[in-house]
Amino acid sequence: MTQEGAQSVSLDLLKQKMANFAKERDWDKFHSPRNLLLALVGEVGELSEIFQWKGEVPKGLPDWKEEEKVHLGEELSDVLLYLVRLSDICGIDLGKAALRKVELNAIKYPASKKYTNNNHGTSKSD
Prior knowledge:
EC number: 3.6.1.12
CATH class of one domain: Mainly Alpha
Order of helices and strands: HHHHEHE
CATH architecture of one domain: Orthogonal Bundle
Number of helices: 5
Shape: globular
Subcellular location: Cytoplasm, Cytosol
CATH topology of one domain: Helix Hairpins
GO molecular function, one term: magnesium ion binding
Strand content: under 5%
Largest sheet: 2 strands, antiparallel
Low-confidence stretches: none
Subunit structure: Homotetramer.
Radius of gyration: 18 Å
């Protein structure tokens, strides 16, 4: 097992690696948008199980064991990799789409407004 090193990993690198991984195994025939979405949802479920019954967890996970953090990293990676593969199969530039969404959210939720924690931190308090 090799790692890319300490440098930042791009979505394009992940997209290329996932495409090669699928091609080498002749899995492209299984990677329809629907199948990838269902796999992604399954992985989100596995990610959710890690947090189930833990209550609120502080940032940085200071009370977690190292093996719990490793497991979390694996499940987060599964979600990311399926999302990258799904966007590739659908012809969506995920990086550009995400940047556009951040810009749209900045317009929708201007920094000059005060926000409460109601509705997942998205409601304005005037």
